[in-house]
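Hi everyone, sorry if this is the wrong subforum. Our group has a chain we'd like a structural model of before ordering constructs, and none of us has done structure prediction before. Sequence below.
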Amino acid sequence: MIARTTDLPPALLGDATWWGTLAAARDLGSRGVSVTLASDSRLVPARWSRHVARWVRCPGKGEPERVLEWLLDFGKRSPGYVLYPTSDEIAWLVAANCGKLGSHYRLYSPPVEALACLLDKNRLGRAAVAAGLCAPETWCPGDEGEVLRIAGETRFPLYVKPRTNLFSHGCGKGQRVTQLADLLAAWRSWHSSGRFPQDVVERMPGIERPLIQATYARTDRIFTVDGFIDETGELACTLGCVKVLQLPRGSGPGICFQAAPVPGEIENGLVRLFREIGFFGVFDAEFIEDNGRFLLIDVNPRFYNHMAFEVERGLPLPWLAYLGAVGNREGLRAAVDSARKFRSEQSGPIRYVHRLQLRLLLGAQALTGGMNLEERGRWRRWLADREGRTTEPVYQKGDGWPSAAEWALELYYLVRHPHSSLRRLVMVGPRGTRCSAVSSPRRVKKRRSAWLRRREGELPMR
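Answer:
Right subforum, don't worry. Here is the predicted structure as tokens:
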């Protein structure tokens, strides 16, 4: 661990299983901020970073009432920490309880209504179009009659997906359907599985009703715009990249990214969108490309998984959020100006590669025939290519223990949960041909039912 000799307020980070949390700990810790990591597990790699001063146990994000109670208790005992969310659930919890938490923490949280707009894909699409951006053609039927009407007025395949992944507890992102009978079955399944906390239902009326969305070609490559905007809307900076490989394939967190420029109309449209709805802070916006158009499909309003890529490219998103939280306007302006200058010089790494995850994926795909020899060779060459700098989210020279912990964690899960570990590596997403837990409504319903029974005490917790 690094000794802290500065008077900077400490920071509290949670959701330590995400690599964005490790990136935030390294960025803040390297600047002299004392970082406390809160997690419900001792095995998380971020805990072992030399930039983490302290680890404390807290409830999991799937228990929002207990998390809020824990945060209030921690804040009362240790006031003055900077608290910034690392997941949608914690972002919602902080925004919805800003009054209570703000008396104990230094926050940089937008209004909860802004989050309700971004995290509800139906409202997000409408707001994006109003701001001059493009969005996928989307319908939100109120009953099965509307589902039938939509099916008769558009072409298959279609995509059925929940309106929000907030408090979804890993139950999937949706299902691609090719005929009317499958469309009705999928819509019924997602509708019946939609259960959310009461405050989410109150702020997002009809959130339990799933969306029907048009499908587009090339959705395996996701164009991503990551950045920061302050509460005035004047200080903003972005960087772009293309997600070229995900785990699970086609519908999971990115493990390989390639740097890409951000078109001016996209950056300006995002700034207009955020100003209109009142959002500020760190964001991760995802687009799919269709015949030259970029269609906004998702916005993550918090720290995100591949954030180390932007930090190493000169956009210190954790530090910007920290400066906003402590009210250092002069420092925030200087940091944004520096990031803009660094971007104009086109410096920094050009690729992001999560090496361990890519090696595991290639090995599993080779064993199961999920990738042909040519495709595996292409990814191995991509992995071995040393031209240009590469960001690796876990291994860092001088801070190697998180990488060792990641190997240990992978072995632990492989031994403890071999079937689910292997399925994650061999499955493909909703656009592929393999059956996966992400795209099967029957499996999603079964998993949600089991989770609810565990929550109510009918089954033991895992």
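For your construct planning: The chain is about 45% helix and 20% strand. Residues 222-353 form a domain with the D-amino Acid Aminotransferase; Chain A, domain 1 fold (CATH 3.30.470.20).
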